[in-house]
Amino acid sequence: MSLVAAFALPHTPQLLVRPPTEDRDLVLRVHAAYAEVKRRLVAARPDVVGVIAGDHIEGFFLNAVPALAVFVGARASGEFGRYRYAFDVHEPLARAIVEQGIEAGFDLTYSQDVRLDYAFYVPLHFTMPEPRVPIVPLYVNVYLPPQPAPRRCYAWGQALRRILDARPERVALVASGGLSHFPGTDRYSSPDYDFDRALLASLAEGRGADTARLTGEELDKAGNVELRTWITLLGAVGGARAEVLCYEPSWHHGNAAVAWPL
Amino acid sequence: MESHYFFPPASAYALNRFLFALKSDTAARERYAADPQAAMAEHGLDEPTRTALGTFDRDRLVTLGAHPYLVFMAQVRLSMARDPQTFEHF
Questions:
Q1: Does residue A129 have a cis bond before it (omega within 30 degrees)?
Q2: Using omega within 30 degrees of 0 as the cis cutoff, is the peptide bond preceding A131 cis?
């Protein structure tokens, strides 16, 4: 059945915990975009949601830094503040992705024991259909250099699509991350909104493949290290034209929600 | 210019391990809140590192090799634990 829906969504925790530092109306507009994504996800009737996200040094620390990984356990769980979350994992699909991904030349790490980062949780908190469907957490290293090259992320997304195309499940993919933000650095309050707007215009023209030619240095400079998750998804959706559901630049974060008609 | 997120130097492993614990381990956060000096000593942090952590001097910590995101989120999580009522503001 292959891919039945594809979205890219922000996961900044301020959208979840709503501190007084945030513009309430802006946050609510992003929530409205999440709600639209949830409606579309429900309509797509997925059997499983694959979430492509970067670990914020939560599940993986410096004991092991996988470039690309898949969670292949029964249930993935984690916490952020008062939020405790757990999701069933679609083990047959997760296992098929690891086995066939490795066969295709991607030396994936897998884990059955890793805490699920909020990058996976925040989009699911707002968009998971009811009743819930199982997930497959797909990891791309974004914060611990050296990260995988954008061209490698894109190629992995292409390989992932080939794997999904041969599967019986209806799969929705959600890339979690972005856009420009610089947490922990002196650039925190000055994201690169121009980069984001040019990127979104390019994606709306169906030029997702161009992102494979970005360099890691360019992503770091633009506050878009997390774009690797989007680039992976772009490998899977190919030349489809993106529909930008929202772009809401806050004082620290370019919040973008994007859908790809399939 | 060095990248915003740089390769974590091995010399900063203990510091990054400590920041990771503050970020992701409730017990470590409570231990630090109760007795910061003891918590830092237990993690084997040297004097310059302890001094920088005393004021959570980001620039100094990053110069010592701390991962910027770990500095950021350790502070956020300490703040969330200290003042939970400042969240869910609307």
A1: no
A2: yes
Question: Which of A12, A17, A116, A141 is the mutation pick for testing B, counting most B CBs within 10 A?
Answer: A17
Cβ contacts (< 8 Å) between B3 and chain A: which residues? Answer: 145, 216-217, 220-221
* Predicted confidence (pLDDT) per residue in A200-246, tens digit: 999 999 999 999 999 999 999 999 999 999 999 999 999 999 999 99
Cβ(A100)–Cβ(A139) under 8 Å?
Answer: no
DSSP A172-185: EEEEE--SS--TTS
Alpha-carbon span A203 to A23, nearest angstrom: 27
pTM beyond 0.95, yes or no? yes
Q: CA-to-CA distance for A52 and A212, rounded, in angstroms?
A: 16
Q: Please tell me the distance from the alpha carbon of residue A227 to that of residue A233, in angstroms, as a whole number.
A: 10
Tokens 């010592």 appear where? Answer: B64
Tell me the C-alpha distance between B15 and B51, whole Å.
12
Identify all chain A residues contacting B80, using CB atoms and an 8 Å cutoff: 17, 81
Beta bridge partners of A85: A78
pLDDT in tens, B29-45: 999 999 999 999 999 99
Please report which helix (H) or strand (E) contains residue A201, including its range.
Answer: helix A193-204
Q: Roughly what angle, to the nearest 10 degrees, separates helices A150-165 and A91-103?
A: 120
Name every chain A residue with its beta carbon within 8 A of the beta carbon of B71.
Answer: 184
